[in-house]
Design goal:
About 80% of the residues lie in helices and about 0% in strands. The protein is mostly helical and about 170 residues long.
Length: about 170
């Protein structure tokens, strides 16, 4: 199915982005720490870059966790339920998640566009680029939510029952 392939491709892209962003953040923090401790120099622009990459890292990580249903709140209730009740609660979770992701896309886009002319003081990065991760991650997680819903309707058991049954058989 197309949505499943798109979801899988977006997940792989997120993992690649996560690696690159982590490397940039780690590199900027290492340089920042060495500069402060050994050269008595502070690189304020690197501090901003590490902060902005951490924001991107958080949202990309959330998209990866959503794809794998590894958010604590998603598993807490559903793992206690069986049968149709679990399926209904999972469906409700994905519906509420889709609403939240639509808000991410809409208001995150507005926030990014409104802040494109606002430039960070030290690094000179337009703040719109920093905020643009909100609608991007909202779109990615919305695709994952639709993929979850389609897969659930095609299966007899809920995702959590399948995972629990596989874990107990090992």
């Amino acid at each position: 199915m197309l949505i499943s392939k798109v979801s899988k491709g977006l997940d792989r892209l997120c993992i690649l982005l996560l690696v690159v962003i982590t490397a940039v953040m780690t590199g900027s923090l290492v340089i920042l720490i060495f500069g402060r401790n050994f050269f008595n120099t502070s690189f304020a622009s690197l501090e901003e870059i590490s902060r902005y990459t951490f924001v991107w890292l958080t949202f990309i990580g959330a998209a990866i966790a959503f794809k794998r249903k590894e958010h604590m709140g998603m598993d807490f209730i559903v793992s206690k339920l069986r049968g149709k009740a679990a399926k209904y609660v999972e469906a409700l979770q994905d519906i509420f998640a889709l609403i939240l992701f639509a808000l991410f896309i809409y208001y995150g886009s507005e926030l990014a566009v409104l802040n494109m002319n606002v430039v960070s003081l030290q690094s000179g990065i337009p703040m719109g680029y920093v905020y643009f991760i909100i609608p991007i991650s909202g779109f990615i997680m919305a695709v994952h939510a639709v993929d979850h819903m389609i897969k659930r309707t095609n299966k007899k058991d809920s995702h959590y029952e399948i995972v629990n049954n596989e874990a107990s058989s090992i």
